[in-house]
Amino acid sequence: MAKPALGRGLGELLSGTSTTEIRSVTETRTAAPRLSAGMSTLVNNPGETQPPAPQAPDPGVVRASLLVADAVLTGGAFLLVFKQAGPDTLTTLLALLALLFGGWLGWLGLTWGRPVR
Question: CA 111 → CA 63, 64, 75, 117, distances in Å?
Fold first, then answer.
């Protein structure tokens, strides 16, 4: 029966006798262990093929999406403010926040993918 890793050499250590050879703390096995499919995915065995890396999105699609988000937020802010008879403070603050966020998205949409000067 094999001794556990922590029990190896414990008797020698307690009795005060030592062996001339130095044993490593961690011993490696000569035979590779058989891993399940889930474990081999976690360990990433070098023999297995890696899935392809995700590609970066097209800058034109990102720019268009940001500009559309800007237009939707700006339109929603105007509808929120002008739909009511008298806008209150909370409505005005929400509309200003939507305009600021929409402006930031619009700026990102205009400058996305452009070379830095």
Answer: 8, 11, 22, 11
